[in-house]
Amino acid sequence: MSLAIIIMAAGKGTRMKSDMAKVLHEANGRPIVEYVLDKSVSLRPEKIVLIVGHQAEKVKKATATFPVEWALQEPQLGTGHAVMQAENALKGFTGDILILSGDAPMVRQTTLESLLESHRKENAAATVLSAELEDPSGYGRIIRHGDGGSVLKIVEHKDASGEELAVKEINSGVYVFRAGILFDALQSITNDNAQAEYYLTDVFSICFRKGLKVSAFKTGDADEIKGINTREQLLEAEKLLS
Q: Which of 19, 120, 145, 213, by CA, is between 20 and 30 Å from 96?
């Protein structure tokens, strides 16, 4: 099965207390997006699409040595809207699409390979990389069917019931979708929410409604799925990446 990768790298990262694009902040002397790109290239996809937005030209310049195609997200209207910008670049592509975040450099290549293998073995329409956290506060929860197998739903922390809040398996924000299912579902999502944004996670809701199989692959190392939103988290990432 052929593979394409979309990397989301459009954000400003206001909590970094800097005007610099978040993915250009450096860990051990390298922009954090480079770590994500290295692993992406190693997976040998047909195409890598990097979604740029804030300081787009600087991000393009910093990533120009990589075999990527850039897609501009302007304005930035949510994660679903970001992925919509890659549709033209992937026109005619019929394989699997791996979606990564440019500010989450610690996920291992071997984990991504296992995620893709699990997605294909399960014959899933969509697969989410999950992890188990001792304190899952703030994260979306993965609610599985009673047999502990495929995913019943993904519920945001703020929308979770008491029983669901007790679940420690969380959504990492790393996903695999069948291309046709992803772009078809993106046409149906709306921005009818408090943030007036298009959420990529709404694609899962559409899959559930249509009875399509959604799977989850759990990594054993929760450090892998940590994103970088603050300078403190950047320092922590430097240690883990060195």
A: 145
Cα 219 to its chain centre, rounded Å, is: 15
Q: Are 111 and 219 in contact (CB under 8 A)?
A: yes
170 phi, psi to nearest 5 deg: -120, 160
Sign of CA dihedral 23, 28, 30, 35: negative
What's the pTM value of the predicted model, to 2 decimals?
Answer: 0.95
Per residue of the chain (242 residues), give pLDDT as tens.
899 999 999 988 888 888 899 999 999 999 999 999 999 999 999 999 999 999 999 999 999 999 999 999 999 999 999 999 999 999 999 999 999 999 999 999 999 999 999 999 999 999 999 999 999 988 899 999 877 688 999 988 888 999 999 999 999 999 999 999 999 999 999 998 888 999 999 999 999 999 999 999 999 999 999 889 899 999 999 999 98
| 15 given a catalytic annotation | yes
What would the two tokens of residue 223 be? 């450090």
Domains of the chain, first to last: 3-241 (3.90.550.10)
User: Residue-wise over 145-176: b if at least 16 C-beta within 10 A, else e?
Assistant: eeeeeebeebbeeeebeeebeebbbbbbbbbb
Q: Which of 15, 30, 108, 231 is catalytic?
A: 15
C-alpha pair distances (Å), 162 with each of 68, 157, 173, 205, 208 = 43, 10, 23, 21, 22
